[in-house]
């Protein structure tokens, strides 16, 4: 098992690699968080959503992804062996595309967690509004492209729109 110092160094390396990849693709990073206990994320400028779709969601058109007229692109980074909370959202649906995998994903329409499914690089998963879900890091760092599909244009989703049913980190 890696030491805490080795894990922190690897995390820095992964975040730098993803940051450089996004910059090289011409994306503007408007927010980032490298301090989540499970990894972290990069938020991409919403005016670049069309470009983000063209790079990461080539199997979809903006019209197919659009629910309310507002989409928000992000990149998620999940550490090996870490889990995001078992959660859902009232004001958004989501679509994830595995950029660097594999990653585990658990989904359910009830509060009971379903079976963990493995997704490899290139595979996508759609999460409906209020569908329960959890990302799980497997053996390696995972990188996912994510689009928030806001369901209420007058009250778009944000980080406060997370209903946590279970969380390994007591949040």
UniProtKB/TrEMBL annotation:
Region (Disordered), start-end ranges: 152-171
InterPro entries for the chain: Man6P_isomerase-2_C, RmlC_Cupin_sf
GO molecular function, one term: isomerase activity
Transmembrane regions listed in the UniProt entry: none
Coiled coil: none
Sequence ranges of Basic and acidic residues compositional bias: 162-171
Domain Mannose-6-phosphate isomerase type II C-terminal, first and last residues per copy: 53-167
Tagged with keyword Isomerase: yes
Keywords: Isomerase
Listed name of the protein: Phosphoheptose isomerase
Organism: Fodinibius salicampi
């Amino acid at each position: 098992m890696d030491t805490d110092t080795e894990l922190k160094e690897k995390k820095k390396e992964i975040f730098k690699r993803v940051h450089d990849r996004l910059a090289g693709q011409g994306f503007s990073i408007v927010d980032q968080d490298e301090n989540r206990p499970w990894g972290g994320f990069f938020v991409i400028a919403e005016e670049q959503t069309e470009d983000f779709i063209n790079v990461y969601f080539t199997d979809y058109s903006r019209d197919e992804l659009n629910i309310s007229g507002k989409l928000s692109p992000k990149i998620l980074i999940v550490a090996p062996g870490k889990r995001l909370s078992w959660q859902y959202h009232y004001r958004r649906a989501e679509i994830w595309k595995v950029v660097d995998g594999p990653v585990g994903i658990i989904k359910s329409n009830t509060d009971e967690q379903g079976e963990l499914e493995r997704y490899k690089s290139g595979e996508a998963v759609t999460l409906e509004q209020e569908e329960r879900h959890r990302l799980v890091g497997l053996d390696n760092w995972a990188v996912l492209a994510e689009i928030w599909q806001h369901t209420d244009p007058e009250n778009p989703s944000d980080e406060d729109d997370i209903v946590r049913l279970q969380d390994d980190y007591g949040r």
